[in-house]
Amino acid sequence: MRPVIETLRATLIGGILFLLPVGIVIVVLGKLVNGASVVGRKVHETVLPGLDADATAFAVAVLFLFLIALAAGLFARTQAGLRTFTLMERLLLTRLPFYSVFRHAIGDFAEGADSLIGTGETRVVLVRLDDMQVIGFVVDTREDGSCIVYLPGAPSALSGSVALIEPDRITETSIKPTEVISGMRRLGQGLVALNQRARRGG
């Protein structure tokens, strides 16, 4: 009986910890929506009394939430905002389940595939494995010539793996990163032509 109780307690605690951040998000969003609705009704009553009440209040509420999010984003870009967010993240947010997953998902959505390309020239290479070749992005090169290569997945090039590849297994290509990313979105369609072009060296 005791093992059953222990298992039930652990499961219950795990469920509470999982639902806690969901509840926090719902409460915060609920407060924001309620506040925005109040502002929308006040604007309708004082500024636009002749228009449809529900539509005007809803439009103003959406605009109010948009402005709040924009202001928060602008503040987050400042030094003070960055320090505040870092402190909150370290003390609270990272302790909440699935926060890291949610944050990376939002980051991927915001940056998109451009986060793979970076600010400089990204080398696209063919990596020879035992019985196949795969396309990869060179992330870094070591002193011995071996490379850290990111191997993008499909359909999202943002999901992949990282490998340390010996130089004799790497073939340089003239393929552009954007072409690879586009091909991955189409589950590889068009990559045969890119591979043939790479073999010809241009």
Structure explained in plain terms:
The chain has a five-stranded antiparallel beta sheet. It is 58% helix and 14% strand. It has two domains: 2-111, no CATH class; 115-200. It has 202 residues and is an alpha+beta fold.
Write the layout of secondary structure elements.
Elements: H1 2-46, H2 53-76, H3 79-91, H4 99-111, H5 114-117, E1 124-128, E2 133-141, E3 147-152, E4 160-165, E5 170-172, H6 177-185, H7 191-200
Antiparallel strand pairs: 1-2, 1-5, 2-3, 3-4
Helix pairs in contact: 1-2
> Main β-sheet: number of strands, strand sense, barrel status?
5 strands, antiparallel
Overall, the morphology is: extended
Rg estimate, integer Å: 25 Å
Roughly how much helix do the residues carry, as a percent range? 55-70%
Transmembrane segments: 12-33, 53-76
Keywords: Membrane, Transmembrane, Transmembrane helix
Protein name: DUF502 domain-containing protein
Organism: Neotabrizicola shimadae
Structural descriptors:
2 domains, 5-stranded antiparallel sheet, 58% helix, 202 residues, DUF502 domain-containing protein, single chain, alpha+beta, transmembrane helix
In short:
InterPro entries: COV1-like. The chain is of the alpha+beta class and 202 residues long. It has helices at residues 2-46, 53-76, 79-91, 99-111, 114-117, 177-185, 191-200; strands at 124-128, 133-141, 147-152, 160-165, 170-172.
